[in-house]
Amino acid sequence: MSHNIKIAPSILSADFAALGEEVRAIDAAGADFIHVDVMDGHFVPNLTIGPGVVNALRPHSDKIFDVHLMISPADPYLQAFADAGADILTVHPEAGPHLHRTLQTIKSLGKKAGVSLNPATPVDSIAHVMDMVDLILVMSVNPGFGGQSFIPSALDKLRRLRTMIEASGRDILLEVDGGVDRTTAGQVITAGADVLVAGTATFRGGPAAYAENITALRQGGKVLAA
Ligand code: DX5
Ligand code: ZN
User: Fold this and answer.
1) Which atom of ligand 1 sits closest to the CA of residue 46?
2) Tag placement on the chain: N or C end, fewer CB within 10 Å?
3) Mutation probe of ligand 1 site: the residue of 141, 176, 183, 196 with most atoms within 8 A of C-beta
4) Could you give the C-alpha distances from 85 to 32, 53, 63, 140, 164, in angstroms and in order?
């Protein structure tokens, strides 16, 4: 199946001392989404970015801000991230007791709603909210850190979710996050992903390499999918 592949660089791998510049650089290099990894040191063992940083970065790019919330609870912060300029708010089902309510809140804020599935989280956990989601994010590493190795069982999960999305008849993006590089990009695209998050593989080599890195990720899939 040939589809339109989007690349979402994770700024977790950017130079944090020059984040605005880094966001402008990946925008110019062809990024489709700006992927922002929000971690609370509780849901995942790392601390990163809050709404203040999202707000500060917003003027640096008109691209879609794809905000991945690895925080628990997420509900008290949805408004703040929406106000800061997030376009997509993605949550994990384990982060709160009422996924349906969380998705309702995101939609009521006028934002796209995403659900992220950890490596051990079954695809069935979103079966009853398919009518509410705009994006499904398959974690191909355990969330918390960049630079980890791709977990191959994500491929089967992507295939199953692609089938569920087709059956739903809805326009739902299927995103994959973790260990996506020039080797695995083709595999995830063939399995049905249409948004590839890439931190290490985008930022490797510094700004002069960003455009080539992004193009390679996008094309790697096209070659294998052809
Ligand atoms: C992991 C994050 C990812 C991560 C990806 O918890 O959600 O977005 O930054 O990094 P790479 O592409 O280096 O695996
Ligand atoms: Zn992420």
Assistant:
1) 6
2) C
3) 141
4) 16, 10, 11, 26, 30
pTM of the predicted structure, to 2 decimals: 0.96
DSSP state of 47: B
* Per-residue confidence in pLDDT tens, the chain, 226 aa: 447 999 999 999 999 999 999 999 999 999 999 999 999 999 999 999 999 999 999 999 999 999 999 999 999 999 999 999 999 999 999 999 999 999 999 999 999 999 999 999 999 999 999 999 999 999 999 999 999 999 999 999 999 999 999 999 999 999 999 999 999 999 999 999 999 999 999 999 999 999 999 999 998 745 444 4
Calculate the CA dihedral of residues 53, 212, 195, 186 and round it to 10 degrees.
Answer: -140
- Distance, in Å, from the CA atom of 218 to the CA atom of 29, rounded to the nearest integer, reads 12
Helices (H), 32-94: 51-57, 78-84
